[in-house]
Design brief:
With 288 residues, the chain is α/β, with parallel strands linked by helices. Helix content is 30%, strand content 27%. α2 links the parallel β5 and β6. It binds ribose-5-phosphate (R5P).
Amino acid sequence: MIIVPGVASINLSKRLAQIINAKIANVEYKIFPDGESYVRIVDNIEDDVVIVNTTYPNQDKRIIELFLLIDNLKDLGAKKIKVVVPYIAYARQDRRFREGEAISINTILKLIEKIGADEFITVDIHKEYSLNTIKIKTRNLNAIEVIADYLKNINFNNPYVLAPDKGALERAKKLGEIMKCEYGYFEKYRDRISGAIKIEEVDIDFKNRDVIIVDDVISTGGTIAITAKIVKEKGARRVIATCTHALLVKDALEKIKSAGVDEIIATDTVENEFSKITVAPLIARELC
Ligand code: R5P
């Protein structure tokens, strides 16, 4: 088995290769002056190939590179291509919320399948039902286990695990159960046109407690910021924001910090200074 690393998953690919004792392919990436992507597989290809290519930052470029890699590898003689996309972009457009909208994640997944992927593996896709769009074998890995392992080693004062909306409740429940602490959720409403968020709080006593807000993705930081502000106003001692995919677009970090968040802890599905937890063991388990 050989691992073909995507430009945004170099470190994760190395961690994975070490665990499963696989070779890493030498791949050349460049962008032409007009903005077009170029990929070249420098090594000889083996029968079994695993592409590890996350799709952030710069989702459109990463997705095009992924398409080029799959098709090229097939053409170069790979017999079985497993496509690991630790963070799959476009997954939040999983429905036609307004008449006439594209269901973007379905389009991306159909293309991955059509171009020649034999298996598709991702981590905490926004809605697991999106995977039903394609027929190839798919797997959605749950990062909460590795997040819990990391958080278990931190000393918290009377911790409370909070989901900022109902969609994250299952995640909060799992984390709360593993950490043996209370958990709950707020109700969130988002205006589909302006993107504005409104939170309906629930009566929870946060006084002097360490609150761990858990979500699948932090994008603009709006959800975490509004949640942290409420929790802080209710007397929380410390606020930790944890998620699988920390995109942190534009001024998200400033927004989150000024809302009172003390620390952001994320996984390496998106590699940045907050990706303190690796999902490599989860992917390795799936590949072996
Ligand atoms: C929404 O359903 C997701 O689980 C996240 O809560 C949301 O996408 C986070 O986005 P943002 O950081 O822009 O509020």
